[in-house]
Amino acid sequence: MRTLLICSVLFAVSACHKPAEQSPAENVAASEQPAGPVKGVDRSHRGQAAPDATFKSADGEDASLAELMGKTVLVNLWATWCAPCVKELPTLDRLAAAQQKAGGVQVIAVSQDSGPHASVEAFLEAHKIQTLGAYQDEKMALSGALGPDTVLPTTILLDAQGKEVWRYVGDLDWTSAEAAKLLSEAGASGKL
């Protein structure tokens, strides 16, 4: 009985124990922790030249962003395993089709998957993505050159001189008014 009473008292005391309050210094240190990339427009890289990184073109040949200079280019970094990437692909595909028809911004989506090139092609086909080619950065050279804070999806608008205008972190409906407004910043029409 005495053992039961002692155990009950210990349990009651431990259950009521409140964790110590953090000191103001600890609270400040916790609030200064980097929060990571925030979804939305990031203009902190504006004016930077497109990285000189090699990836695979839709035909599976070596390609780089330098080959696209002379036109406005929207570069989307995505992966088959990234749910937000897959969610936005159909709207990006519709934008690419409209821009191709109008002679507007060139839209490329560069997969960050490390599997065979044929698997990216099969994924796009299975998801009925008709305009976007199977570009692939299987060594992640392009995403690595864009900086350590690059998350998927990230979409970058490059002007005709190959300079970054902005990058959009996270998924976006590329058929929306917000996307059209963003694309207009480089003289590109986002209208469908």
TrEMBL record:
Transmembrane segments: none annotated. The keyword DNA damage does not apply. InterPro entries: Redoxin, Thioredoxin-like_sf, Thioredoxin_CS, Thioredoxin_domain, Thioredoxin_ResA/DsbE_sf. Residues 44-188 form the Thioredoxin domain. Keywords: Cytochrome c-type biogenesis, Redox-active center. The keyword Repressor does not apply. This is TlpA disulfide reductase family protein. It comes from Sphingomonas limnosediminicola. The lineage of its organism: Bacteria, Pseudomonadati, Pseudomonadota, Alphaproteobacteria, Sphingomonadales.
